[in-house]
Amino acid sequence: MILRLISILLALQALKHSLQVLAAGRRHHCIQLFPPHLLSSSIDKMLTASLRHLYIHCSLAPTIKLDPQDAWIEQLDYAGFAKEVTALGKELQKNTGQADVDHLNKIVSWRNIAAAIGVSTMWMPPNPLTIIALSTWTYASWTMIAHHACHGGYNRVDAGKFNSRGFALGSVKKRIEDWCDWMMPEAWNVEHNRLHHYHLGEDLDPDLVERNLSFLREMDIPKPLKYGVALALMSIWKSYYYAPNTFKELQITKWRQEGRELPTNFDPNEPVTLRMLFFPKDDGDEAIAEVINPTKFMLQVMAPFLLTRFIFLPAPLLLFPGLGPTLFSHAVVNLVLAEMLTNIHGFITIVTNHAGSDLYKFRDEVQPKSGSFYVRQVVSSANYNGGSDLLDFSQGWLNYQIEHHVWPDLSMKQYQLGAPKLEEICQKSTIR
Predict the structure, then answer these.
(1) What residues pair up with 30 in beta bridges, in sequence order?
(2) Structural contact between residues 413 and 103, judged by C-beta atoms closer than 8 angstroms
(3) What is the mean pLDDT of residues 191-206?
(4) Judging by beta carbons within 10 Å of its beta carbon (0-12, 13-18, 19+), is residue 157 exposed, middle or buried?
(5) Which of 84, 102, 165, 362 is deepest in the core (most CB within 10 A)?
(6) pTM of this prediction?
(7) Neighbouring residues of 20: CB distance < 8 A, sequence distance ≥ 6
(8) Range 5-20 average pLDDT
(9) CA distance linking residue 168 with residue 146, whole number of Å
């Protein structure tokens, strides 16, 4: 009887150890990161109960050997890393003050200058100055101003309307005044702030690039044509993919809050595009329309930006006698080309620091703000050169992606200050 109990406990201990080692299993550079002391399961409970009466010490060799480049996973002091990262985050939060507000106002003024140049010259025949200015207006409004305001980066200071509790929320009027883009702010807050940031690189991450673009890899066409498709999608991705996908996550949240079951053929993890919504091909696409009412989507999500940017904004040009239609058409073409450019600009500065063969992906989820969580934010993100306002502005402050994923609610200025300090913490650890 005792031998049988010993055998059972040894088997349980071996299984637990195997799960810890399997935590390093990869799937397309997909890795499950959590240290043994954070592994909590029914096996732990069974072992604890049994070992009250019988203590067994067993040393088992790992059943799976980590790749050399992943050896750091077993060597890392997760608790120590979390302690340092948490302390630095609190320091940066504490140091947020008037200097951060002044810095925000400077970035807003740069955005406004771009808007003024673009709008005042959009009547001209299509030209680079107007297109770049209009594109920068849209890009800065989203990636720098709305992005950090919606995350609460300025909630600790008096930054006026740039507070996450009311910025662009509650009405179409607020949306137009604060931040009008293809994405509905309420939907963006759910999809980006909640789901993407707390499931970075996981199967539950709605912005998992490798999965969302799998259809492109699977296309039976020559590679040059695939690049052509990618380039075409880059120029329209915010309206074609991001607007419907963020709204999908908002609708799923509402359905679940109301206790409603999602349609049988609806896959909540599948990215939604305009094609799927308005030109369904199968039962899965049909189910999407049940969750995302196409008419409601067009009225609530797409119409505010579509009407204000491409119709109402250039409409006064029609009042010019004789020249009105020509000036209006010039403006619309400039606005459309600027929209394509800002999409490409955003794609280049966002997607590239979320995807790549050197960035890890994960099968499961971990506790937020734990050592494993912080490690994931580092190894599933990429930074680009920065440090000056002009260089960072050109990249939408998205070159601090690691810092932003580690501490989502900091100001732009604090990311500049915190980046070298976080890099120092990572360099002295075993993270590679």
Answers:
(1) 361
(2) yes
(3) 96
(4) middle
(5) 362
(6) 0.84
(7) 36, 39
(8) 42
(9) 8
